[in-house]
Specification:
alpha/beta; single chain; Rossmann fold; 39% helix; 17 helices; seven-stranded mixed beta sheet; six-stranded parallel beta sheet; TIM Barrel
Length: 428
């Protein structure tokens, strides 16, 4: 069958919106290719949602099935894409996957232009669904597909959950279908499946994955490194993982493998400040790590105690030690948290100055009550006022909630003042 896969875009295209390619959709694409289907993948974060261009693609490729992937902020555009597909030919099945629909399942199935939702990992579910569509499967055949949401006589139905895919069966993403030249971090390699083992209240990862992280075999990761270098000439690879250094035994094995790798490649990653130490950072620098991102989130210890469970001293040491080892450090912060006040935000901004002086680069985003997070589910209890249901603003660049202590206007005023004092520029 002819399967068109589309990564739904953000509303406003920026350099950040196409920082890295959509690996999740590319994995689905490769599994469909392996099953013998004709697959095309387009990432609209490179161009934006242009109805005329999308119409031309639909006319040229003439898909039998369309699959769309979206996050919360891109979900409105996913619906717009589905609507355009149905306007062209209402008989084309539309399946939608990604983090957002995996959480708001019944809500997504209520949309008239969505026929199927893929919950969680989508490779096997998508392959089985396309095979069933090709075979003209009856309702009972569709109901047997684990990890699928569908409609039975107009009524939303959620099938049984799909067991996690064995990491040895993940394979490779279909990079050959992507326009890699247009991404800043074109060469990301996923080092684990599943999510972060921590359960931060502002993050939906635990709702998606239940805190279970499944690291890939180091040998398989290194084989993929060799393939990416040989095929595409990659010189810098971002090892994509919520917390690369969480499993110290596995990470030590990875460092050992990187130490023996003879290619001329540098590495980047993200992790927590309490999951590294001086010796680890020095070893990382020795094997070619040039960049690391820490999620620090707040500079007020009372806030950190409730949302992150890290110590400010630990954060400062992790930044100093990485910089001393020769690794570029990015420190991300979020404002505001439910219990933030003007005083705690002042502490946060002061701590950002400290980290900047220590050599850290700074990132600020607005705390966003994403579906599946405590902030969305317990907003009233936490004193949060959700300001809009326009999901396109759920991009961490718009203020979409107020707290019991801070209005939106005051949040913007304080954050803008701090950003100016820190010499920061908007990424929008």
């Amino acid at each position: 069958m002819r399967v068109l896969l589309i990564e739904a875009p953000v509303t406003t295209i920026t350099a950040h919106s196409h920082l890295s390619p959509p690996l999740g959709l590319a994995y689905v694409a490769q599994h469909l290719l392996d099953a013998g289907h004709d697959v095309e993948l387009i990432d609209l974060n490179l161009t934006g949602l242009n109805p005329a261009r999308l119409k031309a693609t639909l006319n040229r490729f003439s898909p039998d099935v369309v699959g769309i992937s979206s996050h919360t902020e891109t979900y409105p555009n996913a619906l717009a894409i589905a609507r355009q597909v149905k306007e062209r030919d209402s008989s084309i099945p539309v399946m939608v996957g990604g983090p957002h629909v995996s959480i708001v399942r019944l809500e997504a199935l209520a949309e008239p232009d969505l026929d199927y939702i893929v919950v969680g990992e989508g490779e096997r579910t998508a392959v089985e669904l396309v095979a069933a569509i090709e075979a003209g499967a009856a309702a009972d055949g569709i109901e047997a597909i684990a990890g699928l949401g569908h409609k039975a006589r107009g009524v939303p139905v959620l099938n049984s959950p799909r067991p996690p895919l064995e990491v040895s069966e993940i394979g490779r993403p279909a990079r050959q279908l992507l326009s890699l030249d247009f991404y800043e971090d074109a060469f990301n390699i996923l080092t684990a499946r599943g999510g972060c083992p921590y359960r931060c209240p502002f993050c939906s990862a635990s709702a998606l994955w239940g805190g279970k992280r499944r690291p890939r075999p180091v040998e398989d990761i290194m084989l993929e490194v060799e393939e990416v270098v040989a095929t595409y000439g990659a010189e810098h690879i971002f090892l994509a993982d919520d917390i690369l250094t969480a499993n110290r035994k596995w990470f030590t094995e990875l460092l050992d493998a990187l130490a023996t790798y003879r290619g001329n490649v540098t590495w980047g990653c993200a992790t927590r400040v309490d999951c590294v130490d001086e010796l680890t950072l020095q070893r990382m620098a020795e094997v070619g790590f040039t960049g690391i991102q820490y999620g620090i989130e707040s500079g007020a210890q009372e806030i950190l105690d409730s949302v992150k469970g890290i110590q400010k001293d630990t954060a400062l040491e992790a930044v100093r030690q990485a910089v001393a080892a020769g690794i570029s450090v990015s420190c991300s912060f979020m404002v505001p948290f439910p219990e933030d006040t003007e005083e705690t935000l002042a502490e946060t901004f002061a701590f950002m100055h400290v980290l900047q002086d220590a050599g850290g680069k700074l990132l600020i985003s607005y705390t966003t009550p994403y579906p599946g997070t405590m902030y969305a589910e317990k907003a009233d209890e936490l004193g949060l006022r959700i300001l809009t249901d326009d999901l396109s603003h759920y991009d961490a660049k718009h203020i979409v909630m107020e707290t019991r202590h801070l209005t939106a206007a005051r949040i913007e005023e304080l954050t803008t003042e701090a950003a100016l004092s820190l010499g920061m520029r908007s990424s929008a």
